[in-house]
Amino acid sequence: MVVPSPCQACGVAGGTDWVKVAGLGVLVHNARGRERCPVALPFDWETGKPLTSLAGAVAA
Question: Going by DSSP bridges, is the β-strand pair 35-36/43-44 parallel, antiparallel, or unpaired?
């Protein structure tokens, strides 16, 4: 049995994944149709360097 863990950023239930969107790593909620987490900060996919804000981040 697989039991999805809550979102590591906001706590919503249903499991999460980090996905690549336009060169950024974006945290998405699986139980909500892969909706982007509203509080997790994205990161540069190539370098792993976190972005300092959500400005310029695209929705999944």
Answer: unpaired
